[in-house]
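Reviewers of the previous submission asked for a worked example of the structure-prediction workflow described in the proposal, so we include one complete record here. The input consisted solely of the amino acid sequence. No template or homolog information was supplied to the procedure at any stage.
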Amino acid sequence: MEVEFQNVSKYYGKTAAVRNLDLKIASGALQFLLGPSGCGKTTTLRMLAGLEPATSGKILFNGKDVTKLPAAERGIGMVFQNYALWPHMTVKGNISYGLKLRKLPKSEVDRRINEALDITQLTRFADRLPGQLSGGQQQRVALARALAIRPNVLLLDEPLSNLDAKLRLEMRDNISRIHKQTSITTVYVTHDQKEALSMGSSISIMHAGDLIQTGSPRELYRSPKTPFIAGFIGETNLIPGTISSLHESGGTVKTPLGAIKANRIQGKMAIGDHAFVSIRPEAMSIELKASADTTNRFDMNLAHLTYLGESEQLQLVKGDIHLKASIFNAPPHTLVDGDAVRVFISPESALILPPDSGLGAST
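From that input alone, the workflow returned the following structure tokens.
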């Protein structure tokens, strides 16, 4: 089922929860809505489900306008963060509840229950009550109940937020596996960047009611359009400065650290414009031997080194500039806190970004 938002807005009085949302979700996609609290992602999900009316705009399912269609007629399966299971019903009873409301024949109800139990790997727990299950198992029951009705679209609202770290990792794998098996168009709301990066086929980032970028996980990580996105999707170092020269695919930015050459740039910018250089911690390296080439090489002080076995995290400082570097498979060295170090920033890994503009406070 292809889902499309056409210029959809939602206002509460004069306060905009969602503004002019244009988004097309491909049939069979696992689409993430990602953003900080109050950005409008859950409101978007509730409008899609028919639980909140849109103030303006259209919502389409396979080209059909469903904007004013009641929630019960949209064919939506929804999984909430609090599971919302009937405590007095068994796993099988919870799954069958929505099917019985649809007055399906008993043979069809039984078939769909067994199918949902199999997909969610809950068959041996079918006769247990929710109170006899772990948090991850209860979440799978909620997922099985949503899948059993064979929804046009599956909506997941922060489904892993109540689970501990180990269970969250297990449920990520379960949801990814189930999505591949069913190919149901799925919209997943979260504020957890790692969930979105590791699971999504497409991610839409929202801020203060606005959709500010949609792309694949790799595209958003490698080519964020703004400093906000660069800092929200993973970690990055943002160094302020002024563009001093431009070339075909990038330019040089004059910063308090020195002149940084970057081979990538977002948007149309001119010499003299204020800008930020985004550098991921893993894109930085420490030079233990002197190099004749001085391009993007800067002398800094090592404020703190954290040894993590497979990697080392370095906190670096020069004046008011503080950078973080993550070094994997580091060569043998004797660096300690307080040492002077030379940092190299690859021009291919440096990205020039325009300043954030128009990002209001979240609602």
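Helices lie at 41-49, 91-101, 106-119, 135-148, 165-182, 193-199, 217-222, 227-232. We consider this example representative of the routine output the project will generate in years two and three.
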